[in-house]
Structure formats: C-alpha cells, structure tokens
Amino acid sequence: MSVPVIPPAIPALILVRPQMGENIGAAARAMWNFGLDHLRIVAPRDGWPNPDATAMASGAGRLLDEAQLCADVPAALADCDFVFATTARDRDLSKPVFSPEAAMTEARNRIAAGQRVGVLFGPERAGLENDDIARANAIVSVPVHPAFASLNLAQCVLLMGYEWIRGAGDVVPLEQGLAGSTWASGAEVEHLAAHFEERMTQAGFFYPEHKETSMKLNLRNMWSRFPLTRADVQMLHGIMRQMVRWKERDRDD
Q1: pLDDT beyond 60 at 207
Q2: Helix axes 212-225, 186-202, angle to 10 degrees
Q3: For residue 236, which of 245, 248, 228 has the smallest C-alpha distance?
C-alpha cells in the first residue's frame, strides 16, 4: 500500500534560467527571511552548484544545498497543481492577474486544500518568456513605476515572501516599543498632574485668577492625551523636583 504524498505547507519558488549566482544566493536569503525553503532552479546559466550563490546566501546555504535542479520549466512544474508567474509587463495573455498580496492569499488557501503551488520567477535580463507564462495558471503583477518596471530577482522574491508571511498573521501592523517600561496607570498620571498643578500654583502660573479653573482643566486634559509610560512619569516628576531645587538654590545665593 503506497503512502500518499503530502504537499508541503509552503509554495515552491522556481527560478527560471537565472543568470548570476549572486542573484540566486540573494533570492535564497530572501526566501529564508520569510520561512520559505522550497527552492527549484531551472537551467541556471552558469551551471550548478555555483560558489557565488553560496557566498551571497549568507546563512541560507541549506536552501541551495536542497534546491531541486530542473532541466526545463515543464519538469519544474510537473507536480504542481497551481502555478503563478511573476511579471511586471502586460503579456497580452488571458489569465487572472493577482497582486502579490492576493496571490499569496490564494496560494495559502490552495495549499490548505491539499494542492501544490509553484511561483515562477524569470531571469534577470528580461523576465519570463511568454512560453513560460503560458504554462502558469495565473499572473502576479507587481505594482511598480511604469517608467522603470524592472525588479531585481531577489527583490521580487522578497516581495512575495513578505506577502506570504503577512498572510499568516505574523506581521503586527503597529507595535509600541516601551524600551523596558510599561504604561503609566491612571493613578500615576493623576499624581503627576497634581504635582505639576501644585508647583505651577506656587510659581503663580495660574493667572489671572478668573482663568485659573479653565487653565487647570486644560492642563488635566493635556495629561489625559499623552500616552505616558512609567519612565516618562518618573522623569517628569524629576524635572519638576529639580526645577524647584534650582529655584531654592538661586534664592539662597
């Protein structure tokens, strides 16, 4: 009884006739940045293995060691159920055209359904040929400036890798760095506001008298708008205490 082959949980990235070993290595490095390690290489111009690729991979050499070397595009796609072809140019072919984000979402859905997905990347000089793209099920078009649409091979791989990992929910849209501190509590902000109000009253800041209430209200409202950490609160308390000490020393002198 044969054991069914389980498709990998990631797409295969297929470099078609890459010209420079450095670009292959840079593409492997970009793949590994985003957890992609299924690499196929079709007819590399300078042969394989390539020491320039290994030097450029910078820690991603395992991807190169395990890469599948394919004689042509049909061989590279033989086990794929769905294939994307990346291109920045209009090829006048009747195929669905995905953005990188939508393509990787589609890839994730198909892989989850048990399909093998491949993504074709063309050689550096002119990209994929129409004959290559004709074998794909869909096109991925990267939105670039029309006056300079050419992307470096590794850059294109990097874009697709980023969209792949972003689809997994691993990219946090916004994260506040607190530099080891934590957000100040309401009580801590209230104490800080009271400290400032006390010192500013002593300094005669709330003048004229008929504006004192509104000035204090505006000051309290200002504190509520600040996203203060505990370190911020401690520093502001320290500033106020130092200003008072300086004023007392100045008076004594």
Answers
A1: yes
A2: 140
A3: 228
Distance of CA 47 to the CA centre of its chain: 33
18/73 Cα distance (integer angstroms): 12
Enumerate helices (H) and strands (E) in the chain, giving the number of each.
10, 7
Residue position matching structure tokens 């044969």: 2
Q: Which of 94, 107, 97 is nearest to 160 (CA)?
A: 107
Q: pTM for this structure?
A: 0.72
**pLDDT top residue among 49 and 181:** 49
Q: Are 11 and 38 in contact (CB under 8 A)?
A: yes
The full set of domain ranges for the chain reads 12-167, 186-252
Architecture of domain 12-167 in this structure: 3-Layer(aba) Sandwich (3.40)
Name residue 234's amino acid.
Q
Residue 228 zone, left/alpha/beta (φ > 0; ψ -120 to 50; rest): beta
Residue 201 is encoded by which pair of tokens? 């009253």
